[in-house]
Amino acid sequence: MLSEFDLQPLSGIRALTLATNVPGPVAAARLRELGATVVKVEPPGGDPLARISPAWYESLTRDQKVIRLNLKEPDERNQLDHLLEESDLLVTATRSPALDRLSLSWSQIHAKFPRLSHVAIVGHPAPNEDKAGHDATYQAELGLIAPPHLPHTLLADLAGAERVVSAAVTLLFERERNGFGGYARVSLVEAASIFADPLRYGLTTQDGPLGGALPGYNIYRTLDGWIVVAALESHFWKKLQREISLCEPTQEELGRVFLARRSSAWEEWANARDLPLVRVPEIL
User: Fold this and answer.
1) Is the confidence at residue 2, as pLDDT, over 50?
2) 240 with 216: CB under 8 angstroms?
3) pTM for the complete prediction?
């Protein structure tokens, strides 16, 4: 997680989240970092993230109150209403038909709790907000997956979490102006779309300047692994050429140079010369 703020601008704000898996819990943890009090309501079986990644789940729910409720049971659904009544913000990641059945659509909760703001996490923008999907399918739609490998990170989920926080802060700020809670819908595909822009505009395609076309901005094999060189600015590129005694080297020439040492040795070498070069750690 990010480092804690010295000042906590959301101190006094009470956030209630029903969102499980990744985007909701990451957003809730960020709201907590910003000072909000967070109550997390989980289904009777708990959050799937707790089973898939217990350590991450524990990190994300630290300093939060976690309650399990069966919202199909009237008594437990009434407990949720008590929580909603004392909350400033609701975060959900449930499809709209299910929210309707639980009387948790925006029109229903706004009529009952007019000062409560609601951020709803969905996969796609309207009119396809109820289309099934997960991070991998969202990234695939945007061209961010290179088969046969799955992504190394959950980019759409994490981008969506940041948008949830932005939307929440915006709604809370607007409530201070007009006295009423507001509604925002965060689409994970739209949140990830900005991260696809470098590819969409040709910057990171295979023949793009940051996708492999420039020898000074590339990935190279070493004696025992890989390094990344990011000598993009002219002063870095010229300095790299001086240090390896090659003028305007090609990718192939640099490849032969970097094969001569271990990746850690090249990283030490670069650090001593203030050059942007790092070894690529092995992924477990």
Assistant:
1) no
2) yes
3) 0.91
